[in-house]
Specification:
mainly alpha; 182 residues; 4 helices
Length: 182
């Protein structure tokens, strides 16, 4: 038998299944198959007890020492004030599970809230401002290849109208002044 495999650890059944397909020794094959059966029995017993205590809610039971079963083992161990090692399902742990007769040992398993309803635990990090986009420059044409562009001269402002002569009051010889703009 493959002595490197711990039959109580998560993934042991899968390792033993691989071993069964590789071995040609009848005694080793029988030993590995017996260990697989023992693992299956231990997992089924543990899942039934964990379900009874409210720690495991998978329907139907997976009959595997999967993530959900490991999480349920960890919940029970924390509730029972045992050292938490949810990656090993020992015979001693299954016996401790069977010793508890009450229901509801573990906190109620409520489905997790939708992701959109989760409160933000961390303050939002400031978002990086997008960098301004510079317009692409048109390639500069050389004087030889550039087409000739003619532009009309800017119109000049119209000259101001001449000022009206000042009215005289009939007095003497004052001359009228005329304003001529430059």
């Amino acid at each position: 038998m493959d002595n490197k495999t711990d039959p109580f650890e998560a993934g042991a059944r899968e390792k033993l299944e691989k071993y069964v397909t590789r071995t040609e020794c009848p005694a080793a094959l029988a030993d590995a198959q017996q260990k697989i059966k023992d693992i299956d029995d231990r997992i089924n017993d543990a899942q039934a007890q964990l379900k009874k205590l409210g720690c495991y809610a998978v329907e139907p039971s997976s009959a595997r020492f999967d993530k959900e079963t490991q999480d349920a083992v960890g919940r029970f161990q924390r509730w029972a004030h045992l050292s938490v090692d949810q990656t090993h399902l020992t015979t001693d742990l299954v016996q401790k599970l069977a010793a508890f007769t009450g229901e509801g040992a573990c906190p109620a398993l409520a489905p997790p809230p939708p992701v959109a309803a989760l409160p933000s635990e961390k303050p939002a990090l400031p978002r990086e401002q997008p960098k301004p986009v510079r317009p692409k420059r048109e390639p500069v044409e050389s004087a030889e290849s550039a087409p000739v562009r003619h532009t009309a001269p800017a119109p000049r402002p119209a000259p101001a109208a001449p000022a009206a002569p000042a009215a005289s009051s009939g007095g003497g010889g004052a001359k009228s002044q005329i304003f001529i703009p430059n």
